[in-house]
Design brief:
- Helices cover 41% and strands 14% of the residues.
- β7, α5 and β8 form a beta-alpha-beta unit.
């Protein structure tokens, strides 16, 4: 039976409802060589982020996927602290971001060893936190995937093949997504276990359909950052194109930022529940489709 691997242990589909598949609890967008990178007191992170979690719990959200990977401040221990304080499951990733956010140890590590590292985190725990990684998050350069990013992707494929973990990639251009899918297939991986993160940034909707035709998930994760009507129009276009079973919806919001005084001002994860779903209903989208988009798809994408 497939399960979602979270900070509060494995969860079955019947234990969960609505899931937000792309959010952040803690992020540091400074490069890993900067002083104070990814450093924060757990109590401070909990104080800032627990109210954001409580707000979505009250709206019926039952789990959240943390997308802060290696290179951009991943801290499974801080995710765990927030999770325990709110009794709310969070799914955390192994993997690493793109250049220049790739730390020196990753640059100096061979593909096989990187695969072993990801595999250990997926089946055991991350950084002595007691929390296993639930998925693999990586990225590719806006103008094309670099040799180092290819090495990380191939290592991810090896770890994914042994665990059925999904690989998600921050990739801005559709043609680069297609290049990544080529690499995955050549390495013996499965395109249907790949998430095209930030699909909405590709202006050519035909490319959205092309990525989905390869079997991959597409993700519109800019909710709250653009006018609601633009988001609804994009979702309805995808539904009209028959992409209902491969579409993920989220905000890409939060978060505690250690580079900002007091962690900065978080942006709420509530727009999908409070605004977009009511607009979709008003636009004729039925409850079965709403549940598909917000319950079933996120679970199927991330569970293993």
């Amino acid at each position: 039976m497939k399960q979602l691997y979270t900070t509060l242990g494995p969860k079955r589909a019947d234990e969960l409802g609505m899931i937000l598949p792309h959010e952040h609890v803690f992020v540091d967008l400074r490069t890993p060589d900067q002083p104070g990178y990814a450093q924060a007191d757990a109590a401070d992170v909990v104080a800032l982020m627990a109210p954001q979690i409580e707000a979505i719990k009250a709206l019926g959200v039952t789990a959240l996927v943390e997308c802060s990977t290696g290179g951009v401040g991943r801290r499974a221990d801080l995710d765990l602290a927030v999770s325990l304080a709110t009794n709310f499951p969070i799914v955390v990733p192994t993997g690493n971001y793109r250049e220049p956010w790739i730390p020196s140890w990753v640059r100096e590590t061979r593909q096989a060893q990187l695969a072993d590292w990801m595999l250990r985190e997926l089946v055991d725990e991350m950084d002595d936190s007691g929390v296993p990684a639930g998925w693999i998050k990586l990225s590719a350069g806006d103008d094309g995937i670099t040799d180092l990013e290819v090495r990380i992707l191939k290592a991810a494929v090896e770890a994914a093949k042994q665990t059925d973990a999904v690989i998600g990639s921050h990739t801005i251009k559709g043609r680069v997504v297609m290049d990544q899918l080529d690499i995955i297939e050549k390495a013996g991986g499965r395109p249907d276990r790949f998430i095209s993160i930030h699909t909405q940034t590709e202006p050519d909707f035909e490319m959205h359909k092309a990525v989905a035709a390869r079997g991959a998930w597409i993700e519109y994760d800019h909710i709250g950052s653009v006018p609601d009507e633009d988001v609804v129009t994009m979702i309805l276009r995808a539904l009209d194109a028959g992409l209902e079973s491969q579409l993920l919806l989220s905000h890409d919001r939060g978060w505690y930022d250690p580079a900002q005084p007091g962690g900065g001002t978080p942006k709420p994860y509530t727009v999908l529940s409070e605004s977009i779903i009511p607009r979709l209903r008003a636009g004729g989208v039925g409850e079965e489709a709403i549940v598909q988009l917000t319950h079933k798809n996120p679970f199927e994408a991330f569970a293993r």
